[in-house]
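[agent] plan:
  1. take the single chain provided in the ticket
  2. run structure prediction with default settings
  3. attach structure tokens to the ticket
  4. add a short note for the reviewer (M.T.)
[agent] executing step 1
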Amino acid sequence: PPDSSESNFNLWWLILTQFGFYLSFSIYVMPHNALLVELGHNEKERLTLATLISLTYAFGIIAAAQLPLIWTALQSGFGWSKVYSMRVAVGGLSLLAMACMFVPVFAISEKKYASIQPSTEPIWDSLKTTFQNSRFVKFVLSDAAYWTGLTIIETGLLYYI
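[agent] step 2 finished; step 3 output follows
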């Protein structure tokens, strides 16, 4: 956090940071999930792709769980302050994650696997139609509840272990 003590500024920083994270996460993940049907030509291929996506997500959580170990090593190895060591560890892991996120962007040729037909419907009409579908609204609410619960568990994961 920007402020080294408890403050309202840190609270707002955290809220905006988490909002930015989940917005970015959705923008990155949703197109890949939408392509899953077209990338896998049968149930077995789609299940394999979904499993690989879940495994990479789990490996990301495992890597992030190593942050205390990394920043402690940086702190003792270089004599840096705890805050600076934490920032370097998080920054380094973020750069590694960003590099990993570019792999599917460059490795998957959407034109090769997907039949692309641009929509002619205006975005607001499309959103209105989408949210009139009661099943989609239920899915969005259940998905939000799932991610909220998962985030709570992941946040406390190190403390549980």
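[agent] step 4 note for reviewer: The mean pLDDT is 86.
[agent] ticket updated
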